[in-house]
Design goal:
The protein is built from eleven helices and ten strands. By secondary structure, it is α/β, with parallel strands linked by helices. Strand 1 and strand 2 form a beta hairpin. It is globular, with a radius of gyration of 20 Å. The N and C termini lie far apart (about 55 Å). The N terminus is likely disordered.
Length: about 325
């Protein structure tokens, strides 16, 4: 069966790191740790928010984590999808702070909202773009010159346009010459507790659809010709991941195929996936599910992301983060 060579889908670097720590018997409680294999992890709290920064430093780190070298920042909280204005301001300020650091001295920014506006779990990018402060038409106005120059686009998906998203964005970049691009996209998670409660920021770009097994040409510095910063939120989870959580909860041991039985939750991700591939109907492996309150969650989170980007564009980060 084709599924046996695959793993449970996730776009989150922190979930890949947790799986690696579990395999190596590491507790993962340290606030700062270098594993000595090209991966550094730093954990902390900012108010109500958890902050995890994973840095992949070399080829060995890339091989172990399965992610390109770069910085992966995760901001996490149980309240992200709730209707709490004070909390959302706190998140947008912290998001702006990290974006400001990753952008450095770049002043001309293209923001791309990836995804399908007509499919709610995939509408995060287009919804965030429609709330952005676009400064390109105002570039000559006095008082706005200290702001970053911003343009934005929601390019749709290949089923709507017949073109790869990367092709559209490369054409826009060649024409408008931005210095850096921020892309916003929905992600897939392995842990249901992280759905709509986590924001991942990275400086390595993204492969649209990779988390749901529908990978397109990657959108990164190597393909776009400029630095690419990705902002994403997990909105879907695969059926195999859900099935694995259920088995971990209700089966103390799953002995089939194991000479030395161990709790299902202690099996490696590959062992879990192979077991599920052998016992679940094949049709289930292409299915993904999303929380029932996804409509309101995506609206709120997209607004939080747009506010964080607006703060960065307006140059209000330093004042707000003191």
């Amino acid at each position: 069966m084709q599924q046996e060579s695959m793993y449970i889908h996730t776009d989150l670097a922190m979930e890949l790191q947790e799986e690696m720590e579990r395999r190596n018997g590491m507790c993962g409680r340290e606030t700062e740790r270098s594993s000595g294999n090209g991966i550094t992890v730093r954990k902390g709290k900012k108010g109500k928010l958890k902050e995890i920064i994973i840095t992949v430093e070399n080829e060995e780190g890339e091989r172990l984590l399965g992610k390109p070298r770069g910085v992966y920042i995760t901001l996490e909280s149980e309240d992200l999808a709730d209707n709490d204005g004070e909390y959302h301001e706190e998140m947008s300020v912290l998001l702006a702070k990290h974006l400001e650091k990753l952008l450095g001295k770049h002043r001309n920014v293209l923001v791309a909202g990836l995804g399908n506006r007509e499919v709610t779990p995939d509408a995060l990018g287009p919804l965030a773009v429609q709330n952005l402060f676009i400064t390109n038409p105002l570039r000559d106005r006095e008082g706005l010159k200290r702001m970053r120059l911003s343009t934005a686009v929601a390019p749709g998906v290949m089923a709507q346009t017949g073109m790869e998203t990367g092709e559209i964005l490369r054409g826009i970049i060649d024409r408008t010459r931005p210095e850096v691009m921020i892309i916003i996209d929905a992600l897939a998670a392995k842990n249901p507790a992280r759905l709509t409660k986590t924001i991942q920021i990275c400086d390595t770009g993204i492969a649209p659809g990779a988390g749901v097994g529908n990978g397109r040409r990657e959108i990164s510095r190597s393909t776009m010709g400029i630095p690419v910063i990705a902002v994403g939120v997990p909105t879907v989870i695969s059926i195999p991941a859900v099935a694995g959580d259920i088995l971990s909860a209700i089966l103390p041991f799953a002995v089939e195929g194991k000479h030395d039985p161990a709790p299902f939750s202690e099996w490696s991700e590959q062992e879990q996936y192979q077991f599920l591939a052998a016992h679940l109907p094949e049709d289930l492996f292409g299915l993904f599910v999303t929380p029932k309150e996804i409509d309101e969650s995506v609206k709120r989170i997209s607004y939080t992301i747009s506010e964080g980007i607006n703060r960065m564009i307006a140059g209000a980060v330093d004042t707000l983060c003191r």
